[in-house]
Amino acid sequence: MFPRTAFTVTVNPKIPPRLKRLEELANNLWYSWDRATRTLFSRLDPVLWEAVGHNPKAFLKRVDESVLLKATEDRIFMASYNSILSTYDSYHDAPSALNGSKSLGPQDQVAYFCFEFGFHESLPIYSGGLGILAGDHCKAASDLHLPFVAIGLLYRQGYFFQTIDRLGNQQVTYTVSDFGDLPVTPVMHPDGSSMQIEVPLPGRPVIAKVWQVRIGHVMLYLLDTDLPENSPQDRNITHNLYGGDKAMRIEQEIMLGMGGVRALHALGIEPTVWHINEGHAAFMILERIHNLVQQGLDFASALESVAVNTVFTTHTAVPAGHDHFPAEMMQTYFDSFYRDLHISYEEFMALGHIPGSPDFNMTALAIHGSRTHNGVSKIHGGVSADICRDLWPQIEPEENPISYITNGVHVPTFLAQEWADLFDRYLGYEWRNKMCDDDYWSRIDAIPDHLFWSVRQSLKSQMFYGIRSRIAEQNARNRGSEAHLDRLLKFVDPINPSVLTIGFARRFATYKRAALLFENLDWLRRIVLDQERPVLLIFAGKAHPADVPGQDLIRRISQIANFPEFEGRLLLIEGYDLRLARRLVAGVDVWLNNPIYPLEASGTSGMKAGINGAINLSVLDGWWGEGYDGKNGWAIKPGPEDMEGVVRDKEESRALYEILQDQVVPLFYNYGKLGYSSNWVKMAKHSMKSLLPRYNATRMVDEYVSKFYRSASKKGASYAADDFSGARNIAAWKAKIRQAWPGVSLRRLDAPVERIYFDETLDFKVAVKLNNLAPGDVIVELLICRQFKTTRLGNFQHFQLECTGMQDSGEHLFELKLTPELCGKQEYFIRVYPYHSLLTHPLEMGLMVWL
Ligand SMILES: *Cc1c(COP(=O)(O)O)cnc(C)c1O
After folding, report:
1. Average pLDDT over the chain, rounded to whole?
2. Residue 320 pLDDT > 80, yes or no?
3. Does the beta carbon of 132 sit less than 6 angstroms from any atom of ligand 1?
């Protein structure tokens, strides 16, 4: 080639006035759950639509002017454009029919912080379940018209795109986003300059630009440090999600937590509830304390004031999964900061302290700096309470303040269009407002079986089309022949999608045991190679680039897929993302999940499958522990927690094969004259109607509002009123209690009675040494329960003892007269703990003395 200069010029179309509002549609993530909007764009130019990765904004910058002009002449196109705009306007104007917004006051504002957000493949700032859950939380907040904003980081490279080579090695490519193509816009000041905030890092300030993303009614603000004002290193802070070393991570987390608070301040937003979704964002607590200390409040009162309206949700079931930073690093980054708070280094480090580790733990900070904490399923609530038990050293984990709200998925995003259409016909248009109404969803029974089945088949067929093109692309890149491709796709027949199809797709984290199904290949062969009743297995998922065992799993599955007898029966599809997820959860017959109990905090992909009529086959862990009702799918009962890994895999894979062989395959292929199994349809319907009204994001966000947000907001206001007198009182009271507590003790005065008759009364007398505390500072309590083999504290009835005076010894006398209501042997305990009416949780101090 001759030496020459390539000049470029980009030509953007001029959007015709009649289509002007396409730009509005492209800049509102509403399109991520409104399929009609996405279809509208794709109809303009399907090839370009694919080429820009389903991104309306990038599409509008590249579509030919002639296409747009032609569309304005196309009456059918214009009709759907106008109909979409009218739906769009009524969504954005209408007051909500749901209760969510009503339970928060007009001045309320929830700020929701998360490290990643997954709304749609066109905004690649998510990696997996956590981000998508956060996206669904925002979408449901919009549906509920909540006063709600979200805060995150705008990653230039997002998460990686995955390909898998012929040997099964995961290949990682990062694409650099042009922010002009993303559905984000800079926040502008009235003078036309873009909003920036500044966050101090050691020795230099780092500037971040504030971007906004519209998600229906709510706004997401994203911070971006890739600015010429910053050094090259600092420009990299918001480059990739979960990339880089510990220093990069702490800088990202400082940016999100502290920068996020600064951005809200710059925006003039004053949240009344602060929600930390996973520990990454917990530094926001420090920034808020800092602000209050600068206003003149002491550290302890500032901490109380901040914590009382902060909600913390943990999503991790392994202690090692919680972020933590070495003490020296904390010293480097927070040296001047804690001095500003007028506290010692030790007091500062205590905020992130977990016994047994010198590191600063973000979960510990999040818990110390919040008064409402939860896990994301019933099982995970218990696991989290146990992991964090040392933060309330004198409290049994069962009673400590960690509760749970089970995750849910955003139904409009993940429900296939065919279902929405069928619901319109058989349930009525109002199904969208009946999301949590169990009775309403029993109407699914009114859908004729053959129509239900034909939707299932049609979704499977669409999935097969998608899989065919992906596998073809994969095969071509890996230099497979055409003949080989035919082999791979022999069961993937969109015209006759009759093969029983089992899907497994999620991050390839080792605890999810993607290879459990391959424990006993002979047994698996017997199941899937049946000539009459074939089985197709579809796998997809990414492993974190630093997760070597996760990548080994991909290689293992790829190798098995290449065994001649498994060719075409086991497909490993690359590039798992939201788009592929939507296809798979709707298209497969069975959704498989087999994590190591109890490590799956919740899991959400099974919910997405369930609402689309796929049937779950899953270990009773995470959400399935409560979702499974005996008839809506299949359950693998996990072995005991202390079971050795190898044994567990053997036992649980055996259960998996047995269920597949004895139940799943026979039920699916029990075709009658109808050409489908009516018992299968019965189970799928039952699964759909039992799961949809319960595992949706509206129910989830409604629960956050009614259980957490409302009370956090009220308590926050009461702590802050009168120049923070509530916060000051509680801080002073806690200091007094902490000081006196080691001297508090209990002594029983009455002689324990061993046997009484029904209707007789027991008279308990306890002397309590309060060590200068007042009787009103404590609760003395008797817990009683009929004795079972294993008695959980939750089964006990509680009775309070009343203070009746003081002994000469200086002890206070507490008494209770109790007439047991039940006969039989009863077990009881007596205990004392500090109590104040301003506390959020009665046991939040973590102090208790038992008799
Ligand atoms: C729902 C979803 C997940 C989470 O799936 P789990 O089974 O809960 O791990 C991960 N990635 C994508 C793309 C999803 O849509």
Report:
1. 95
2. no
3. yes
Q: What mean pLDDT is predicted for residues 546-575?
A: 95
639 lines ligand 1 (CB under 6 A): no
Q: What is the CATH number of domain 436-693?
A: 3.40.50.2000
**pLDDT at residue 789, as a whole number:** 63
Residue to probe by mutation, ligand 1, list 121, 132, 411, most atoms within 8 Å of CB? 132
pLDDT in tens, 720-776: 999 999 999 999 999 999 999 999 999 999 999 999 999 999 999 999 999 999 999
Residue range 571-614, pLDDT digits in tens: 999 999 999 999 999 999 999 999 999 999 999 999 999 999 99
622 C-beta closer than 6 A to ligand 1 = no
Residue type, 702: D
Q: Which listed CATH number (1.10.1220, 3.40.50, 2.60.40, 1.10.3680) goes with 744-850?
A: 2.60.40
State in Å: Cα 239 to ligand 1 middle: 23
Pairing of strands 535-540, 500-505: parallel
Nearest residue (CA) to ligand 1, atom 1: 605
CB-CB contact of 570 with 561 (8 Å): yes
Give me the sign of the Cα torsion angle 833, 837, 839, 841: positive
If residue 150 lies in a helix (H) or strand (E), which one and from where to where?
Answer: strand 148-153
| Ligand 1 atom index nearest CA of 129 | 4
Residue 165 CA to ligand 1 center (angstroms) comes to 23
CATH number assigned to the domain covering 108-158+187-324+363-407+710-714: 3.40.50.2000
As a whole number of angstroms, the distance between CA 469 and CA 54 comes to 16
- pLDDT for 99: 47
Cα distances from 153 to residues 213, 228, 258, 271, in angstroms, run 11, 18, 12, 19
Question: From CA 842, how far away is CA 400, in angstroms rounded?
Answer: 9
pLDDT by residue (tens digit) across 55-99?
999 999 999 999 999 999 999 999 999 999 999 999 998 765 554
Beta carbon of 129 within 6 Å of any ligand 1 atom: yes
Residue 790 in this model has a pLDDT that exceeds 70: no
- Ligand 1 centroid distance, CA of 507 (Å): 7
> Token digits for 599?
């490590």
Decide whether any atom of ligand 1 lies within 6 Å of the 506 Cβ. yes
Looking at 304-376, which runs of residues are DSSP E strands? Answer: 310-313, 324-325, 360-361, 372-375
Q: Is 234 helix (H, G, I), strand (E, B) or coil?
A: helix
Q: How far apart are CA 370 and CA 712, in angstroms?
A: 10
**Does the structure show a pLDDT above 80 at 524?**
yes
